[in-house]
Structures are given as C-alpha cells and as structure tokens.
C-alpha cells in the first residue's frame, strides 16, 4: 500500500497565513486589474479559509491600477501624482477583491497601513487587535500601504516589507509572496539565462541577498531583494516564507497540500518577542549614537544596558522614549532601543560616568542611557535587522 504523502511544507502546516501579491501580477504588467487572476486567488484563499486557515491578503496594485484608470502610460515621479494614482486605483483593487470573495461567501475588509502606524506602539497594538478581531470574525483582511498619506521619508515603499510586518504583527506561520517569477534564482532570470533556481534556503542567509541584488520589473518596486529581506523579517516571529509564481495554477492549494512549488525560505533564526520585533521593525529611526569598542562588547556580547560613558557621538534630534540605533566606530548597527535621554541631553552626558549625570543635567531620570530590556541586538554585523 502506498504511503500517503505527509505534508511538510510551511504552507501545509500553517494555521494562519499571509499571502502577498505584487503589482505586476495584479495588474497584468500595468494593463489594469487582472480580474481572472484575482478571481483565482480569491477562490483559493476562500478554499483555504473554509479549511479553517486564517488568511490575510496583502495586495499591491493601487498605483498601477490608478495609472491605467487615469490613462497614464508612464509611472510618474512626483509623489503627489503617485498618491493620486493610488487613491484612484485602490478603489478598483478593493472592488475587484470584494466581488471575487463574495462569490464564495467570504467577507473582506480593507486595511491601509503606514510605517508610522506600526512604529507607534499604541497604533501598532490597535492594528494588531483589529486584525485579530477580523480574523476571529472569519473576515479576510486585504492590506495595502496607505499611499495617500505617506511621505518619502516614512513610506515602506514595497509591499514585500509590509507583508513581513503583517506576518510579524499577527504571528502568522507562513508568508506566501506571489510574483511573476517561479521563485528565487541565483541571478535575475530576465537578465541571466543560466540563472539557477533555488528551491529551498534559510531566511536571513546573506548569500540569498547577494543573488537577489538586482531591481525588479518596471511595474513592481522591490524586486527579489525586498522579498528575501521580507523572509528574514518574517522569520523574526517564526514565519516561513515561500516565493512562488502567482500564475502557477492552484499555487496556494497545491502549497497547502504539501507540494513544493517556488522557493521556500525557512525560519530557523531564534524567534524574537513581540516587543523586540516592534523595536526591530522600526525602519526609520530618529537618530543614531556611536559607541566605543567597550560599549559595543558590553551590548552585543554581554547584553548589558548602555551607559553614557560608552557613547562617542550623537546624530539626529530625538526625545526621551524615541527609538535610536547604536552603531560601532565603522557605522555598523549593533542594536537599537528606546533611549532614556533626548539628543540634547545625550550630547551633554556622553563619555561621562552615570554618577555625573545629575551634576551635568540637574537631575538623573535613569542611570542607563538605554536599558537592555528596551533594546534589541543585531545578531551579526551583516544583519541589518
Ligand atoms: N535572483 C532573482 N530571482 C528572481 N527574480 C529576480 C532576481 N533578481 C531580480 N529579480 C527580478 O525581480 C522581479 C520581481 O520583483 P517585482 O517586479 O518587484 O515583483 P512584484 O511586483 O511581484 O513585487 C522579477 O521579475 C525579476 O526580474
Ligand atoms: N502600495 C503600492 C504597492 C507598492 C509596490 O509596488 O509593491 P510591489 O509591487 O509589491 O513591489 C500600490 O498598491 O501600488
């Protein structure tokens, strides 16, 4: 008797999944929403939902669809035009998904997030509880970046990162990134016909980042690099990532049956706590402080709190409670955390022992500049968190 196949893939085992679809797929290379493709993904997600899996969809395509609706042949450079296109296109995107999911009796919800929503602790917790509530109600949330309100400095820019942040937020066990390639290759297959397919890898392996180095298609923004980095980020909460072709027939259903399709990037890094992830997921920091070698050792090897005496330079303007990066003498980040003193005060107390803080500032709120409980450490020098 033939043994029944044991589903081993990340998607087969996951009870909570984030599926991300990129702009070039959703809009058929920018021609306008690919209604047939949307219908197929919706059917598959509805089917997995019916099997008891909690599903979240992160969909790009608002800008590309907006451009198609407005009759713009080329992607504009001006931020306000991109935002106008996103506002127009998001209507079409959500409408297409709502119609497609309704055919299977599945309710959907629109969630538009910005980097700031996830960096602010209260808004982050609110977003998380709304997503959990929707999942508990059996709704499929459809997430995109809130392009209309972001500025260049605070935009996530690509939805691969957003997909990973949502994976972290709801502690999904798997992130499926659907794109226009079969997965990750050793080089961009559009440019290198000898590129080798990578079936499996380890999330966070720097060799993968080197392979994915090139930029993406004309329609998408991130290319493969943002997908590989998203896998590293998803691994912070134990999420495995699969990068696969969204054009492959029944790709999600087959993955859920344990079939190996695409590139699976397994999470084997130690899982960080929700608070550590929140700290690590700050993509834009208020400032950075340079540490001397002794302080770098105290932080990274001994996991001690940071004292002002180990700081040799301060960049940026920040307040007490902001998230600030700690870098070594070469500018390589070794950790980050909530700082107990403003940039102005830090400049006055740097290189000084804690016993002198009260004398310099008139009072001392905390003996340490950053408490180790409020810090997250970067595992390797090459790890950009
Ligand atoms: N090593 C690689 N393996 C596969 N694709 C790569 C690689 N390096 C660059 N790419 C490019 O990345 C593109 C996918 O990224 P992108 O266009 O941003 O997609 P999406 O819109 O789905 O996010 C592919 O079409 C491919 O040309
Ligand atoms: N928020 C943007 C998505 C950004 C983007 O292009 O992402 P992607 O296609 O996934 O690289 C949009 O909806 O157009």
UniProtKB/TrEMBL annotation:
- Give the EC number(s) listed in the UniProt record: 2.7.2.11
Q: Which UniProt keywords apply?
A: Amino-acid biosynthesis, ATP-binding, Cytoplasm, Kinase, Nucleotide-binding, Proline biosynthesis, Transferase
A molecular function (GO) term: glutamate 5-kinase activity
Task: Mention one GO biological process in which this protein takes part, according to its record.
Answer: L-proline biosynthetic process
Q: What are the annotated GO cellular component locations?
A: cytosol
* Superkingdom to which the source organism belongs: Bacteria
Occurrences of domain PUA (ranges): 287-369
UniProt keyword Methyltransferase present: no
Q: Which InterPro entries does this entry report, sorted A to Z?
A: AceGlu_kinase-like_sf, Asp/Glu/Uridylate_kinase, G5K_ProB, Glu/AcGlu_kinase, Glu_5kinase, Glu_5kinase/COase_Synthase, Glutamate_5-kinase_CS, PUA
Entry keyword annotation includes Kinase: yes
Give me the reactions it catalyses.
L-glutamate + ATP = L-glutamyl 5-phosphate + ADP
- Compartments it resides in: Cytoplasm
- Pathway, per Swiss-Prot/TrEMBL? Amino-acid biosynthesis; L-proline biosynthesis; L-glutamate 5-semialdehyde from L-glutamate: step 1/2
The enzyme's first-digit EC class, named in words, is transferase
Q: Which residues bind ATP?
A: 20, 179-180, 221-227
Specify which residues bind substrate according to the UniProt entry for this protein.
Answer: 60, 147, 159
Q: What is its main location?
A: cytoplasm
- Family assignment? Belongs to the glutamate 5-kinase family.
Function, as annotated, reads:
Catalyzes the transfer of a phosphate group to glutamate to form L-glutamate 5-phosphate.
- Which HAMAP family does the protein's record reference? ProB
Q: Report what the protein is called.
A: Glutamate 5-kinase
User: Lineage of this protein's species?
Assistant: Bacteria, Pseudomonadati, Pseudomonadota, Betaproteobacteria, Burkholderiales
